[in-house]
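User: Fold this one for me? It's ARM repeat N-terminal plant domain-containing protein.
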Amino acid sequence: MDKIQSDCPYPGCFFCVMKEANPSKRRASVLKFFRELPSQDDDGQVLPISGLWNTAMAHPNDPEFINLGIFECMSALIWKGLKNRRWLSHDQNIYIPYYAAHIIGSYTMNMEEFAERAVRAGVIPPLVELLRGRLTWVEQRVAVRALGHLATYPSTFPAVADHGEVLELAIQLASSSLEIVYSHFYQFVDRRIGYHCDLLTRGMGGVEMESRKAEEWASQLQCWSLQLINCFAFKSEFLHDICKADFLVKLPGMWGGLVNENSPAGVGLLRTICQSKLGRGHVANIPGVVEALCNIARSSDDWQYMAVDCLLWLVQDSNTCHKVIDRVASTLIDLADISMLGDYKKLGDTIVTVLQECMQQYANSRNSICTHTKEQIDELLSSKQSLKLEKNMPKEDLHIKQAAALVVKLEGNSLFSSGNIAGAAAKYSEALALCPMKSKKERVVLYSNRAQCYLLLQQPLAAISDATRALCLHSPLNRHAKSLWRRAQAYDMLGLAKESLLDAILFINECSQSNDPDLSLKQNKVPDYAERLVKKQMRAAWLFREAALKHGGIHCEGEASDAFGQEADDSEWETASESDAENDATGEADDETEWKNDGHQENLYEKS
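Assistant: Here's what I get for ARM repeat N-terminal plant domain-containing protein.
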């Protein structure tokens, strides 16, 4: 390429080309640059490629470079890196395949027209080679990202699907990505490849920053693999390959983690699978998947509505309803007081309708519903009927019911304070039976109080059910602080670290915004008992935990903090003093609304 500016020491400098004032000359020079770059072996080629990477990230919808052959250039550079290892190891060329694949992904993520141009330019074969792992996991990450974008569009999906190994490779990568990143990068600090470290931190951080970014990238590698699989899941001909038992059972546990909360990950793929009759049949038949969906549906996860969709579709399908109804009914009943969630405007009404139709469907069917499930559904239908009747009830009668419920609740508070936990739980049940259905605030308190009793009685499933009902009744949804804390402890009892972690974090968030003097954070300090639970669950829900256990990074529970990368005392929050925590854990009862604080909560946490 001709030299544009006489004072530039590098003939054909791309940055000088971009400074050309004449548009036609500039386009001609860029076109020539893209055509000639793959055949050149000059030093410093990574500089213009990194510049193009920045441009693609900043202006992914700009057609200028698309029209001038950037896809053909990037495809050729990836092939060159795969076939010419001597060139790849020279200078800084090792970075080029990564940048090239990233550029392809950036320019194809929004525009179907650009994706079509990319396919015609032949980008898919070299991307598939990267996906196979011909280089490293770093290149796999950007390759699966680019292929995921290409598979999103109807016009370019067939070109991706024509490479039959893409789906199988994506499934393998989704299943093993965390272990790959842990064993190939995270585990041994002194063996980390230099250019990986540079790409992760852009040269701006040390070992700690590298480790944090590695966790983020590992999560992206898994989530982008799931997104690629999701494109195939919309096509029934691929569902048999996707719905293998050993893969489906892992999906509920695949989540973006705290570093990648914007991805629906495994539950998003399950939702797509459950949209088809064939997919629902597979999900209903695999032990553990439906139960995991129930946990997600009850949780404060951002993708709660996706799990609810799955459960409703399974119950509405006559081929799967009898297989799942006894497993999902209690979860759906707990959620029946939610008004808006996701695309649902009246989710509670939808749940009632679906369960009612289910009861009618199996009234005279060979596939019967168990007695306990029938009783639960009948109780739900009766409560909804009571709500309708209350609309025509005189206000005086409603006030009498409220007053009676309050008296019984106070009796429950008294029993709780005296240590009669079972008696208190019974009184709260009696108060719930008396309390008008429309008195939502009062019912939130009663459910939450009874959940605390169940915690102390070591009945975590009952505590989760009541805490969930309180959170569904509360406005805004899933934001009642004390119910979040109680459910976090119940999840902890069952070993459900992710669900416990999400509730504990939301509890702290609610405390930070609360005007309640019993809940608000003192001097912006997180209560010690809450911080301990969050730290415990962050270790237990750590993305690399299973990989670390497998590869010897965690030898026993007591050494989990070493693998996680922080000792227990190294908190991001300022910790409340022990005296503050003790004051926050008193068990007094409040006659007006609710106990001033969660009685025995520290002792309970220690037990659990």
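One thing worth pointing out: Residues 1-6, 555-608 have pLDDT under 50 and may be disordered.
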